[in-house]
Amino acid sequence: MPKVSVNVCCWNSAGTLDETLSSVWAQTYGDYEVVAVDDGSTDATPDILERHRKAGRPLVVHRQANAGLGAARNKAQSLSRGELLAILDHDDVWERDKLERQVPLFADPAVAFVGSDATYIDAAGRSLGRYSDRAPLRRGDVLRELTLYNFVPCAAAVMRRSAVEKAGGWFKPDFRIAEEYELFLRLAGTGAFDYVPAPLVRIRVIPTSAGWDVGRERAEMRRIYAELFSRRPDLEGALGPAAVRVKRAGLWLSPEQADALAGLPAPPKARLAAAALLAAARAGDKAVDALLGLKRSAARARSKWLK
What we know:
Distance between the termini: 42 Å
Strand content: 15-25%
CATH topology of the largest domain: Spore Coat Polysaccharide Biosynthesis Protein SpsA, Chain A
CATH superfamily of the largest domain: Spore Coat Polysaccharide Biosynthesis Protein SpsA, Chain A
Helix content: 40-55%
CATH class of the largest domain: Alpha Beta
Number of domains: 2
Number of strands: 9
């Protein structure tokens, strides 16, 4: 029985999958299996998976009709045998010592899930900066901070199986954009989070598609926060009414922006951004959609420029 099950969900992943899998085979920690779910790929993804399996790697492969990322993640989990579950997206890369440095943190029985810092890379593998530069990492009881913004890189996450079961189960299959964040919030409500401060993951930045479904993203985020505040009404008092209004609109907040909305000292840039977010939340759906569209356009332009 392996200690760690590494879940890799694939969809038309032929361009990056070899490098992704090779970063697992190179791990200095050896007590793992890889469970790969091919979610209806139409490229060479099945051939690549079969080649690695025939090479004698600890790889379980499952093919299915396209069902979406949440469903694919749940299928991978159902085939996994490990006490710990690690997520690795098909275009990201692990550093050699990732599992070796993360697994020991589970010696503390209070720890439900573990992450690390990460490095953004472009399509050619060139560094674009640190994850923690945009999303400072926290540890311990992190539910309030994680409600404000997501500081757990998906490809860095390792979860304790028993903690996920305590939190109500695995990914919700009807989520297609924010399924991992929804699960992380449930985990943060049942146990502690810990992390390795070193960047143990390389996250590949692909220019955001012009067809990104902003409406679906906002709908998923609004549902996430509605369910969260329903099961944890104490969070509303901890965040304050202005921050809760912004979160119920499906928008992110940095800790500095939350401080600004609570009337606490905050940098001028954070105060201006917080005021814009609150105005959009008060104005309604069209204003929020417009704001999210502007943020997506800026991210797309930035990633193209970096590339």
